[in-house]
Amino acid sequence: MWDKTKLHTLHCSLLGKGDGSTCCHCYQLYAIIKVLLDWVSHTLSGCRTNKLNLERDIEQKLWSFLDNVLHSKALQILLKEKKTVSLRFTIAQAINDCIAASCTHQGLRDDISTVLSCCQGILSTPTLSYVYTAKFELIVDLLSKLSILACQYLTSEKPITPLVFDLLQISFTQYIQIQRQQTNPNRVFSHVLSQLFQPCLLLRHALNTRSWNKEDDNRVRHQLSKDLRVKAEAVLQMGLFQFELLPSYIEELLPEKDQTEKKKGSLKTLLTPIGSMLVKLRDCSFFDTRIYTSVVNNSIPLLYKLFLESYCKDDNQLTCFYMLVRLYECLQSTVIPEQEDFSVSSKGSVPFFALEQMLNLVLNHDVYSVAVDRIRHKEIQYNFYRKLSEMLVCNPCTSTPAWFRCLKTLILLNHMIVEPDLDDLVSCAWIDANISDMKVRKAQEILIGILLQTYAKLRQFSKLFKEVLIIICRPTIDELRAPVFSPQITKKLSELMLELPQSQILDIWDMILEKCHTFILHGIKGDSDLSLKLYSLASMLYCLMFNMKNMDNITPLPVLVRFQTLMKKMKDELINPLLKIIKDHCADTDSTDCLQKLCDSTLLLCYTWLEVNTVTSLNCSKYCSQLEKLTTPTDCPTEGWDYSLFLEDKDCWQKVVRLSVQSVGRYCLLLLCVQKMKYILMQNKSLSENELLTLQASAYFILHHEGNPQVTSANEPWSGNACTVNADCFAAAQWHLIMSNFVIIHPYLSAEDTHSVAETLVETLLSGPHAQANQDTEITLKTVSASLLQSDFFPEMHVTQSAFITSLIEKCAMSKHKDLSVTLNFFCSKNLPWHENALFLNKTAPQAFISAAVNKVNHDFSLCWAKLENASQNILLASRSRNCENLSERDKDDLISVIECISLLKPDALSRSDQSRCFLLLLSLAKIGCSPSTLGLKSACYKLLTYLITGKHSKSVLRLLYASDIFELVFSSLLATKWELSDIIVLRKEWPHFIETLRSFLESLIGLIAKRKSFLLNVEKMLAFVVRSIPDSESTDWNFYVGHLILVAFTTLCTIMTQCLKKQCSHEQHTETLSTLLNQAVMNMGTVIHLCLKVSDSSQILPSFFVSCITTLLKAELVILPLMDVAFDKVELKHIELYKRVCSQILKEIYYAESQTVFLKSASHYLAICVGVKEICMSQESLIILICTSLKKLFMGPWVNFKIIQSVSVDLIELITHMTKSCSDEEFVLMMKYVLQWLEVNNLWKQNYKEPFAGIILLKLLLSCPLSGERIKTFWCTAPQITTVLVTLCKESCKERLLLPTIIVPILEALALLLRHGESYLTNPHHVTLSYSILLTVPLDHLKAEDYYSIFLGVHEVLFSILQYHSKSMLKAVPSFLSCFFRLVISVMHEGRQKGDKGNEKVRAPESEVVLQCAQLVERMYTHIAAKTEDFTVFSAFIVSQYVNELQKVTLQPVVKKHLTEGIFNILALCIDRDIKFLNASLQMGVREVFKELYQDYIHCRKNQGEEKYAA
């Protein structure tokens, strides 16, 4: 035996700790490893078979020793040298036994990890894994034990580590490889069924149901778990459902009467696979009793899925159906008996979920064919599904979404399956279902949507609604039913009714009226149940009548006559009798609740009838309105609630109003009031005094019947359906009604009511989200108010808009900030007419009233303007006093909310006074507070001020304040702010955005006065103020924030003055004054920049900001130089050293500008100007070449990608343009050499991908620049070489998918540009046709959506460039051109094929918008090809045949097919009769049918849309 010292030395050697340098040592090591591996294997095997009795600790150390050997560097070295190292087969069995022992151990053993590591080492080493792979039984046994062990880990509460799962993944991979090599399918089936079937199902269930937590390994959770599920399913599919076993399945599944359907097979090989599987599945001893039901429920759909994927082809549908039957029987025998009540049990959803999955598989794999089942199999499938339908309907489980989904799938299979149970289905799943859970409700709505869609397609809508009406009229257990039509069902109904014949909707309408007449009216008095039923029928009628197609002048006369009859019948036989019942009621004897519900129904019916009558009267001149014989509007009553203008008398409506205390009734009263206003206004004549009073009373009633909507936390969203209004959502419904009809209401409101509406608008907009609302279907107070402000009508409501601004100012005036409150109180008075037309609330008022009011208006408006002047002076005085009073966080948030409300207004729609008020308000808000925490508030104010200045009355503010005063006011408050006390991290994030916002505002402000006479005076005052504000560098007031603010002021002034100097060269006096001012600004600005660079820390400098400031300074100096009275050759730039230093710094640091596109833009702009300045260029050895070198470094940066280059492309093009204009011919030649050098393909071979990228980008930039003279010749002389290089580069890049966005897409764009600009220069057709090799090489499959579109667009643009600019070269290689284009056609057809759920028969858009865009490009290319009539006439038949051949293989998404069809129609227009005959004769049978259908569509479209559309 070895002593401990030798063992330790050996152990170190094995671990690679010794020198191992000599050959002798390597040989000794090899011998020792062989011996030790054999010895350890033998010893551990003996321990497991009890031949050796070793202590547990020693056995563990032996496993550790084996693990160290297997993972040692020494072993790896030997294996690399191809030395033969072997293990005993018994070690594999020993490992399996250890894992099995750990599985049966109570709790997971800690020492198993060493054994697992050994197993991993063996399986990961090809020369050692034979101990498992050579014996199929061992790998099967290992996989079984590992699966059970993994399940124990997954069900424990301990954190998941990757060891077991990594080993399981390796084992699965090894097993699948071995399984594929097995030649005996029965043997494989037996092994999988006996040892892997249950463990794999259990493993899959454990992976699906594991509650993952933060401590679990992320790789296991996201990657390995998914991979293991896939591999487990693959093992089961390959083992249990092999093609060779199909005869056994057919023999077992098909009954004797279907013997003719059975496949022939050798009886010796036939098994009973289904029976064997189901026995294993029913064996509950293997699974924990707590999870047995769940495992079976998850496993049965899986087995059916695997079976269908393997065998559902070659007319095996009947076999697949019988498999479904057997699995369903298993589901019944194992799951359902364990539950006491199938429909009520908490686990009741489990069998429904399994059944739903199986039914979906039947649907998706076309297992059930109605015709084949009826003709060949005596409806055996239909009868089975009927039993399923009966079981589901007789055991309703409306708390489970899967129950609804099962019924939905049955309807999609064949509506006849559920039709015998239609009444029960409608009852339990729709009318009587009381559902509160959102998931269940969604499943219910999908089911009802499919039901409606099915019967709409069958044109049996009335049959379905007949059942619905019968169920509604049945006696109910509960007093209240849910609304028949939820918002989603209503939406679906409206879509379907547009496609239905109007006669069917009229049938349903007639049925409802008949039910009301025969069943409801005769006994409704005092019967609360009938009142509830009437309300359900009224709500149905409301939904139907509001969603049906409008009658118009092209409606068939019989339909219109029937519609008119039903309208009269509804009024005479339903509405009038109901009103009479209410009128005759006795409050003492009749049930109040019953009458209230009766009032709700009656009012809903009245409104519905009136609305439909009005709309039809407007749309259809043949329709005779039922209101023409009623009271004339001139004699209309003045009370808002009196609707005797339409129906009944005043006493009846008085009772109706008194009884309408519920939400629906109150809401319908308001709707009727709006109808009354509309009816009066539609009379084409001037309004009488009585009518005017009626309109005012109606407007007052709408606003005050229930008071203004109160903004409270109890307010809930409203669905938009009048039937669903309740106490919680009434405020939203009422506010929606007021706002949606405000156009006709607001002229008849008093000033007080207008201000009341404005206050409510403000309150709702400033309110927080009290309830979560679905933006598509639900309405809230806030969304209604925001919609009004964003509409095109609100700017026309001048008085309301003015009142709204007054309310906003009043809201701000409530702030605790004293100065702000004092200032705002000047111009927020409600008693003053802030709008010029404020007194003309009614445009139809008597002339005498208008004349008398004119003088008062003029006086009051003068008073308003005086108030504004006082306010502006107060703002100016307050800013000069520098009295700082800070705001609380809540006040700041409230003020920012107010600013957001102002931003909804349109500046052009504001009057002079309102524009000035908003401007003064924002100025007041911007100047409050000296704390840096108000930066967000200031930024919002200046951003909105910039927006306001775009309004047409923006100059009105200059009547109150000079531009220089505003400038001083802004900077006084900013310079007084204590920036040094700020939170540096937060401030630095917001500061760049604030600086940019401030600069935009100042440019807009000074732009207002640019053409005014006072421009020079204002600019002089501004400049003087800024100069005075420059603190000394030693002053405590100085910090880099102050420096930035002063630089913003100087930059803005310099920019404006520079622009004015360029425009005013003819005006000598102005030019002289401006140049003097600009010179003064340049001197001081240079000083401030030097101070900032000297005093500020480097981390405080904003690179992009400073570069743009210095750029402005340089531009200003360049403008001043020619205007100075000094000899030009003696003139020097004042800050030349600064410009040189900045230029050098940019060239050095541009490479490091990661995520700073703003800096890249400003740096490019600065360099572009520097290139043209001799003083800067002369100091550099060659500025052009230095810039090229820096750009190369930039483009090769690891953070630079194609998107970043695109975002700064405009600035880079400007830079390259200036470079090409300023460079010498030699420098341009050198630039072209750089391009060719960077594009060399050997860069790719060296894994240097960035250099070709830099070359392509520089080439694109050069192509985008205008060239002249010798440079054009130089460039186009190298163009053929560039084309060849691009072809080679593209072919090499296509081998590496990662290079698609970085190399291939830019190559395609560069090639398209080269071809477009080379129309006159690329005269050799060979250089053009070289492009085809690129287009045929680039991949178009298995790409990300973004990459796919980029490449598709690139190929399209290259083809378009060839077609448009090189048509002669294209004609010499038309087949190549068409081959490239047809690649696009095939690709878009493949990507745009239908992949979705077969149940969703609605026309859907493609899964990705990208495919649709690509289809549009293909359509465009077909159009371009058709435009070249003379070039492609010969090939038109070939193009069509290619298209239809590919079309026959796929079913396209409708929207994709639409674009492709439109495109190919253009090619069909080129085909002559001979081509059509040729295609009909030469195309194969299936393809020919596709072509005939296409050609018929083309002829149809040509007739309908005219010959011109597709004329070539």
TrEMBL record:
- GO CC list: nucleolus
Which BP terms does GO give this entry? Answer: ribosome biogenesis
Note the InterPro entries from the entry.
Answer: Ribosome_Biogenesis_Reg, Urb2/Npa2_C
What are the residue boundaries of the Nucleolar 27S pre-rRNA processing Urb2/Npa2 C-terminal domain, all occurrences included? Answer: 1307-1505
- The lineage's top-level taxon is Eukaryota
Q: What is the recorded name of this protein?
A: Nucleolar 27S pre-rRNA processing Urb2/Npa2 C-terminal domain-containing protein
Organism encoding this protein: Pelobates cultripes
